[in-house]
Amino acid sequence: MIKRIASLFAGHIDLEDMGQLATPANDRLYDNAALATVFDKAEAMAVAMDRLGYHALWMAEHHFQREGYECIPNLPLFFVHLAHVTKRLNFGCGFNVAPMWHPLRLAEDYATADILTRGRVIFGVGRGYHTREVESLGGVLQDADANRDLFEEQVEIILKALTSDRFAHRGRAYDLPPDVPYRGYRVEDLTLVPRPLYRGAECWQPIVSAKPRGLDFMAKHGIKGIVGGGSALMAERPIVAFKEAYERAGHDVALGQNLCLGLNFHIAPTREQAIREATPYFEEHLKMFAPLGMVPMTDAQMSRLGERGGWDDAGIPTLTRAVETGSWYCGPADGFVAYLEELQEKFPGLEDVNVQSSMGTPGAVMIEQLERFAADVMPRFTGRGQASAAE
């Protein structure tokens, strides 16, 4: 039964043009003042969502994106600020990319944010997917096995540090603490100061490939999963695989339990109007994510994405097709209610859902869509939102 409704904002600024006829992704270049507007945009979303009764606003950690797509580099720091301008809204780290951090510094930053916000920060980690970011900040991404090995060791260190009075770690990448003298004795263990007081070691992770190794690691450590990208209705295989991994670890869970499903949406009086309005945002989403391997395409299609227009004869996915297959919802509010009710029936353990606008959507449109959802859809599932949206 769906209990909590959140939204994801990856951190794009308002772009001056969007879609296949607009500036190609790699040709975008914004000055510093424009890039810094992402913080005001995110704050406006947070304030609106707090008023409307949403559970959480998830954001993404990214670096060096002069193209304006994902521009928030430090989630715990920003969330401490956002907690000061809101009353109840929680903030999800979707996600801190562990290979770009020293694991103990990440654990400290999260613990500090947990205490300063009184438990309103939800911790999340990921492996990363931008070579420019991960490799520049000292991690490894091009070698997938090395990336996985590093990530798993880092997460084990983080969880141990968050939950132990004293801890030590001896691994392939880290030897913690090092064998050094300190104030008259040899250092044998460490204590994270401070540790979280509220959420403890609750942790979320994205589910992308849904391979057994990754899912078994999550189940072993009790890590919850987010299936994103708006493909929830088609994503039964990873959801079933996640349940099976938890069962292999000795946990009896319902289908959808410990998961959050991400749904891209656009509400309008008719499906045709919603598709027409959201198509430029969908096309901008393709320009950003397909070359990074997030949307399967041929080399010829990828090449066409880097050009202005001419997509119609290249077989590039369309929003109309995405709506037909259920990977997006576009249409009236009552149809979205039915869409979510179908999810509840299909995944009876599901309690968390993210509803989100696509990459490129202007801030004013994102807030308007969140208001429509809060007024006409959310009360059917959480009993919250309708009164707040009318204020």
What's the CATH first level?
Answer: Alpha Beta
CATH superfamily: Luciferase-like domain
Counting structural domains, the number is: 1
Spatial gap, N to C terminus: 27 Å
What would you report as the Rg, rounded to the nearest angstrom?
Answer: 21 Å
Question: Given the helix and strand composition, which structural class is it?
Answer: alpha/beta
Overall 3D shape: globular
Sketch the topology as an H/E string, one letter per element.
Answer: EHEHEEHEEHHEEEEEHEHEHHHEHEHHH
Percent of residues in helices comes to 40-55%
How many strands, what sense, and barrel or not for the largest sheet? 9 strands, parallel
Label the CATH architecture.
Alpha-Beta Barrel
Mean pLDDT: 94
Instruction: Please provide the count of β strands.
Output: 15
Uncertain stretches: 386-391
Description:
It is a single chain. By secondary structure, the protein is of the alpha/beta class. It has one domain (4-94, 207-389): Luciferase-like domain (TIM Barrel), CATH 3.20.20. It has 14 helices and 15 strands. Strands 1, 2, 3, 5, 11, 12, 13, 14 and 15 form a nine-stranded parallel sheet that branches. It has a two-stranded parallel sheet with strand order 4-6. The longest helix is centred in the N-terminal third of the chain and has 21 residues, at 32-52. The protein is globular and about 70 Å long.
